[in-house]
Amino acid sequence: MAAPLLDRQLLERLERLTIRWQKSFRGLVGGHNMSRFAGPGQEFLDHRHFHHGDDLRAVNWRAYMRLEKLFLKMFQVEPRTPIRLLMDCSLSMAAAPDEKDVSKFDFARRLAAALSFVGLVRHDSILLQPFHERLDDTFLASGGRHRFGPVNDFLAELEPSGKTDFLHIARQFISTYSRPGLLIVISDFMDDAGVVKPLQYLKDFGNELMLVQVWSDSDRKPQLGGEVKLTDAETGAAMELALDDEACQAYTEAFDQYSGEIEDLALRSGGRYAGFATSVPLDEAIFQALHETGAELQRAGRSA
Asked: 8-22+81-302 maps to which CATH number?
């Protein structure tokens, strides 16, 4: 059995949280978020005229006795919405410029573990989908909190590899999962080809996006100066640069602009965005991700 990714104290705090979504998805009865679609359920929604083939058990017989017309009672469905968690396992996630720093990969899988536990407590099912340049093997987290052990083991055994290709991932995801739902993406979103267009594809397919961006402190604010040689963690390509304070400031501004484009896409589509440095305590990150707005999250993550 793998070492626990989350301690008991954090698990106890996570029990009061809930993963919620804004959209209504057609699904199976049994979730805890209300849908706008009519169907079997407990909360009364409306009446409609009876049509041939409708279930007689749903007829409002009291109304029939008064009006001599058949009306069908409709109730609000509580759907079990598909929740899928895309976790970036590319080599860029493993980069930790300082040995004392937590890698983005370790931080991301602890976030994934926390979100899975929250879902299990509420009897949601979360499909864990690791990826790099392609989708890897999946794991379905379901069955209640007592099934968290296998989730922990699955995430603990993941290893970073390969490079990032969001466009290919988006196309493969859409062809693999025909039914839209809540899509949580945990990544540093570092892809030379850009990520906004692929994420837009995922949104246009009908998914509600919850985008969680993680970065190391040096990803946003380089702690370098003078003549430096940078090596791409995924491709091995090297680049020699001369860095001064002005260049580092310009890089930070470009980083924030890029993160802002990702946030804007999420919020514009009715989804959510959370951005964190790996130096932010995990409990703070997960509680903010599930309770705050995107703008508040961005300020919290970037002030770290």
From this structure: 3.40.50.410
